[in-house]
Description:
Two copies of one chain form a homodimer. Chain A is mainly α. The first copy, chain A, has helices spanning about 5, 10-20, 30-35, 35-40, 45, 50-70, 75-90, 105-120.
Amino acid sequence: MSQWKQIQQLEIRLLEHVDYLYDDNFPMDIRQGLASWIESQDWDTAANDESMATVLFTNLLSQLERVRSQEQNFLQRHNMKIIQQQLQVCQNPFILSCPGNESMTKKLFEQGPLEKSLQN
Amino acid sequence: MSQWKQIQQLEIRLLEHVDYLYDDNFPMDIRQGLASWIESQDWDTAANDESMATVLFTNLLSQLERVRSQEQNFLQRHNMKIIQQQLQVCQNPFILSCPGNESMTKKLFEQGPLEKSLQN
């Protein structure tokens, strides 16, 4: 079972903390849609290695395209398409100037431990 | 069957047009979550009547709160919460200065006929 599925079994009080981790800077749709892939990548290293971060970011776009094209739910497919378009505009994985001037890699790096701490 | 469900049975070529109707200014999550309620309101009149538009907008927020609180899917509940927060900041149904300077009522008014034209 992915870490993401385990998190969704937490009590409501803790799930509210998870809610706050995800916004337009890092949509929860990506976390859910790519759960297994995200959890199998080395974000700790990528957070300090720009070339690796660039590769991971490119792979993330490919994974998103794969998952979106297979998604049967119209609403989720639509939301993934919007997220894909936003990410494709901001090609820099370290300094995502849009939306919200946040780093995708940094976000992924920070959120893993935060989610884990909620489970403990 | 709601008009929204019928629309999702259109062929992919036409569904792509529906995709373009929905963005951050009017998230598809609202259209889907409140489908029956939206389709039973008089948006034509509200588009030219500010007091009625204000009532409909307030009712839309209440409906969104009702649907969100009953939603079992964690991701959809989370997305609805974010949309609710955005809408509560922009209290004017005619001039929604955020996000995107669009009128909710105008959007609802315009999208109904557009969706219908895709079905014909």
